[in-house]
From TrEMBL:
Gene3D superfamilies: Vaccinia Virus protein VP39 (3.40.50.150). The keyword Transferase applies. InterPro entries: Methyltransf_25, SAM-dependent_MTases_sf. Residues 48-140 form the Methyltransferase domain. CDD domains: AdoMet_MTases (cd02440). It comes from Haloplanus vescus. PANTHER family: METHYLTRANSFERASE, RHODANESE DOMAIN-CONTAINING PROTEIN. This is Methyltransferase domain-containing protein. One of its GO terms (biological process) is methylation.
Length: 234
């Protein structure tokens, strides 16, 4: 995985949410959570696995809505932050945080109703292997996002501390087919890259987001979207 040592550092885990989801980053957090909730649908009593759960911002949200969920991550420091969130939210009994390797998931076939990963595939050195494992342990749904190679994200990708893997849509379709999945739906968003929103105050982010969404609703905007959400079925 790209940047594995950077990602697992204690100081990164402690500052992760503040650096990424304060200022204009709050808008990103809201949009990503909405994308997950729309894709996963009713959650009561569903058995869910989150790959690369990080500090648990999705994990806790889904547990609060009735899911029984396992959050898997490579970073012990990130998992500890997730456990704190779960205890604070009163949902620790509905979450198991587990340190593990997404390329060798420690679960039997068809174990979960839904398996999903957000902010994961841009770090993946072997995306086909990861997606196949996600498919193996899911009996219904696999959901994930990618950063796109024909987008404004290209302009600042080289500045990131661990870089990003950017995907073409044809490549994602091949990965989905290769894993034995069927694409049920896809959505494409954010003409302006995440890094731009994080640098501006939240009050300005909303104004830029209005323009971003207007462009994104056009055929050109769809092609230039920096983020794609992929909803697939086993």
């Amino acid at each position: 995985m790209k940047g594995a040592e950077w990602y697992q550092a204690d100081e990164i885990a402690q500052e992760y949410d503040v650096k990424r989801f304060s200022r204009g980053g709050r808008l990103i957090d809201r949009r990503e959570k909405r994308a997950v909730l729309e894709a996963l649908g009713p959650l009561e009593d569903r058995n869910v696995l989150e790959i690369a759960c990080g500090t648990g911002r999705f994990t806790v949200m889904l547990a609060e809505r009735g899911a029984d969920i396992v959050g898997l991550d490579i970073s012990s420091a990130m998992l500890e932050e997730g456990r704190k969130k779960a205890r604070s939210a009163g949902v620790a009994d509905h979450i198991e945080f587990l340190r593990g390797d997404a390329a060798r998931l420690p679960f039997p076939d068809d174990h979960f109703d839904t398996v999903f990963a957000m902010r994961f595939f841009h770090l993946a050195d072997t995306p086909a292997k990861f997606l196949s494992e996600m498919c193996r342990v899911s009996k219904d749904q696999v959901f994930f996002d990618t950063f796109n190679d024909r987008s404004t994200r290209v302009l600042y990708n080289w500045l990131l501390p661990m870089g990003s893997r950017l995907y073409g849509r044809d490549e994602v379709h091949r990965l989905v087919d290769g894993a034995g999945l069927t694409l049920a739906d896809s959505k494409h968003d954010f003409v302006l890259p995440y890094g731009f929103y994080r640098k501006i105050p939240n009050r300005l982010a909303d104004a830029f987001r209005t323009v971003d969404t207007a462009i994104g609703d056009t055929p050109l905007g769809t092609q230039l979207a920096s983020v794609s959400y992929w909803d697939t079925r086993v």
